[in-house]
Amino acid sequence: PQIEPQNDNFATHHNQAESTLDFEKLDEIENSSEYSSVTNRKLSNARSVNTSGERPPRRTKRKRHGTVVGITFLSLIAVLLVTSILIPDSNFSETENRPLQEFPTISLDSYLSGTLQDDYQTYVEDQFPLRNLWVTINTFVMQLTGRIENNGVYHCSDSSLIQKFTKPSDNTPVDAILKFKAEHQDLKTYALIAPTAAGINEDKIPDYALPSNQKEYLDTINSQFKQAGITPIELWDTFMDNKDDQIYYKFDHHWTSQGAYLAYLQCASQMGITEATDKKYEDMLVSNTFQGSLASEGGYLLSGTEELHIFMRSDVETPSFVTYVEDKDKQISPFVSSALDKKDAYQVFFGGNHPLIQIDNYSNAKRGTLLIIKDSYANCFIPFMIGDFDKILVVDPRYYTGNLNDLISSNSVINVLFCYNATTFSEDTSLSRMINAPAQTPTEAKEDVEAKLQEEANALLNN
After folding, report:
1. Bridge partners, residue 421, by sequence
2. 3-state DSSP call for residue 21?
């Protein structure tokens, strides 16, 4: 209690200790017998004031304040709980461009294995009311406290966003490609593992961030590819020479069409496509409100937007058809204009990722069939390759469930290109799963062929 001076030094010393937060002095005073007598006198005065109906003591005001805070906090929790119940769950986040966790299936096995608890925690995080707002606020607060990255995304000196790269501890995807080459010695195999902005624009990354060592990683795996008879498409020097051009998006982890074009010229040179430099393209601005995946992943939703360009062949019209095998959809262009209305406008290239795409070219290229095994980096790279091969098969191991060897043999594949960015490649597990998948038995292969023929027959009847 605040002690009123009564012409004695005791009250003065106590109030000075309390106001200056001198806790050692305060403890010494309050443990004295004199303090006890003064406190009892104050409490007695407080009781007399209460009985007369006048102002309550200060302790009651503090208690009332604590009650208000408690009620407010509980009300906020109740509002969030009711909101989470009333608002239906979302299956997909346009902002983050990823599927969201649905309510997990409850079973004894999932409970005992611990997956039920993990899935439920992910479900609560993904379906939290106003999640995007809270993520943005959280990122803003962390920036104020000096944090240099959030969820693996750096906020750089020029306000651009760069995905963090960490050198992997294992060699799983490299081993998968080496195994593939060992089993297909007759195929011309190429590996394009593209450097990302974390390597080329490392000078923009905030101070005190760990070095990416991306060049060292790429040099190592490219050396392994060479020793196994695989031709690496090395881009580091080319990209460093052109780093002042916009070869990467500011708020997305992909390279731009300009970066992909530089990679195409390098790749064409290694593949012997001499006419690549003679092609003419029109640089077309298709969106000026593009906000990429890094803005969403890092919570930097207020970072702004940027332009998205595509390179359209202008010197000659290449007759080709793009078939999305799983969807049984056939188009005449690799560009999907309807995707520009979505949050992820990068899906203008092939409409996003698909398990298997077949591109048939009727310009008499006479180079046979090319198989491209890829991640999303290849989506804006592949349009440059159209016209260079009679047929291009595009496989995304993250979604493809077919047998790769059967696909190669049934389409007379001659050339194979692995096209990834360094970050996705270093973390990938789907490539190893696909390449190490057991071959089909004759019975399974026969059943698949019969099922495919039946589907085609049904489609013809429906048409």
Report:
1. 194
2. coil
CA distance 335 to 308: 13
List, run by run, the mean pLDDT of 10-residue segments along the chain (463 residues): 51 57 55 56 50 54 71 73 65 62 77 77 69 64 68 86 91 95 96 97 87 93 97 97 95 96 96 91 94 80 85 81 92 92 91 95 84 97 93 95 94 97 94 83 57 66 64
Q: Which residue has the tokens 């040099």?
A: 219
How confident is the model over 164-204, as pLDDT tens digits?
Answer: 999 998 889 999 999 999 999 999 999 999 999 999 999 99
Residue of 434, 376, 431, 415 lying closest to 174 (CA atoms): 431
Instruction: Please check whether residue 211 is in contact with residue 180, taking contact to mean a CB–CB distance below 8 angstroms.
Output: no
Nearest-angstrom CA–CA distance, 329 and 128: 36
If you search the block for the tokens 């109906």, which residue do you land on? 53
**CA dihedral angle for residue 120, residue 434, residue 98, residue 420, rounded to 10 degrees:** 140
Look up the pTM and report it. Answer: 0.71
Closest CA relative to residue 349, chosen from 271, 419, 276: 419
List the structure tokens of 351: 């409409």
Find all residues with CB under 8 Å of 38, minimum gap 6, and list them.
Answer: 3, 10, 11
If DSSP states are collapsed to H, E and C, what string results for 362-375?
A: CCCCCCCEEEEEEC
What amino acid occupies position 92? F
Q: What is the SS3 assignment for 55? A: coil
CB 162 within 8 A of CB 212: no
What's the length of the chain?
A: 463
Integer Cα distance of 56 and 225 in angstroms: 83
